Amino acid sequence: MVVNVKRASLILCFLLLISQTPLIKAEEQPQVVVEVNPNLELFAVVYILAFNGSDDFITAPQDYVRNVLTYFAPYKGHVAVKSMQQMFPKDLPNYIKDENIWNWASSLAVRDYLGDQGNLPDFYAELSDFARESNFMEFYNAHREEYERALTPIEDIFKELNFIEELENRSGEKYAEYRVELSYSLLIHLHSRQTVTKAYMIGSIPRIYLENLRYTGLPNVQAIINYTFRAFFIHEFAHAFLDSDRLGISSEYRFIYQKILEELPLMAYERDFSTSGAYLNENLVEAFTHYYLGEHYNDIIAEYSILKDATIGYILVGDLAKAFQENISFEQIPEVVGKLVTKDNLSRYFNSKMPVNGFWATNKIYKDKKVIIVYGTQNPDERGNEYDKESALMLADWLRSVGISVEVKSDKELTNEDLKSNLIVIGGPAANELTKNLTKELVVRFSFNDEWRLVKNFTAVENPISFIFSNGSIRMAKLNTPISQEYPLGVVQTLRNPWNKEKFMIVIAGVDRYCTRKMLRYFNYNSSYLIKGRTFFEEGFYFQAG
What we know:
This protein has 21 helices and 16 strands.
């Protein structure tokens, strides 16, 4: 499918990798091609046969998978299928599968259809033979309507938002063609690639990501789904225009990247943190994406998304988004970054942009390899104390499974030295003496008036901001907005340890023991606090000096 992108003068930019200077005359109209790529789907079909339709990376509807297995049954013994099985043995870890599928997709998506090609090397030749022998295009053409239904919402994005024109205007560069090359049935990590004249977005039909937003650290509500769907395309095509190496900042500002890995060592395992350049690229494209969507789609979700980016280390996004709002060209980015952060002000800048949050605290625990979990003994019902102790032991088992040394202690066993450690506190003030003693430090506090209630008090933190999610929508909450007291109700909140500002404290508590346990799963959530009720949740962000 081809969608003409109308000329405009606004914004666009967002995610990833390779960059070469594009060449196209200024008067030519950019074209966007959106398709289920025949080569990617050919690869996917062979993959489905290799795993007999059952594998974590097979994402097509079951009817489609059955059609593949039936139509291509005579070719299950083809050499291409056997080669696929050798390249992807069943015991291969998923992260290696993901990387290998990414690499194959990046190569296949930019090639002409293999079934029409000769003199191909190795596995490409095997795929080509499979395509011809099985008459793959007959199957592909028979499912075009199914593909078209999945692609229509993507085409609509390019009609709704003129981000490509904005990217071109800010960069002074153009590509002859913009191509969205997708697989209908295989999970392929979304990424970008560029040739001299074409910019590509390569990956899966985005439904698989939208159905599993938990993997992104974002809440699975309709407003976020709609925003994220649009962000995918801006992000990936922005990579064609925003590149830290080309801007000359990847080496000069390596110290920012090093600071992030020091504070968030778990991010070292992420592809986008593999180098200083990759990390800075993500800051650039995220900033453009949220700037553009804030201006043209939803400013509240854009602000929320900027804060979520900061919690995982993209601390430049907010300020760069503001710079894009002031209509800077991409050539001015090095000057903007130079004014924002230096080696001398790095720690101060980091603390002013990184909200205190559970993910940061968890990274600190991971780095120190040590944490104390504190359960309460103050409940007059001894069964409540035992229940909270069991909750503490459940969390301890998980942390030990990832190599953390965990001590589980009651509130009566803590020493003054223990209080200076990274702490996870289980239970509210009626159950845990430590929580009771922390009342003045807590942002979300407990109040008793016939029943326990949650109330907010931001006096102990800086620059608080809150968002409430309900009925599939999001709204920004005023600081004095009362908390809806609906059962079940609980909170996870993260603070700097008041006895040792270099450490963190995560407090997990509900209005009763059962609500406390329900909140355990959110102990490392990337917001400063998370309140969950039956029909709503609230996320807040705030800052504390180290």
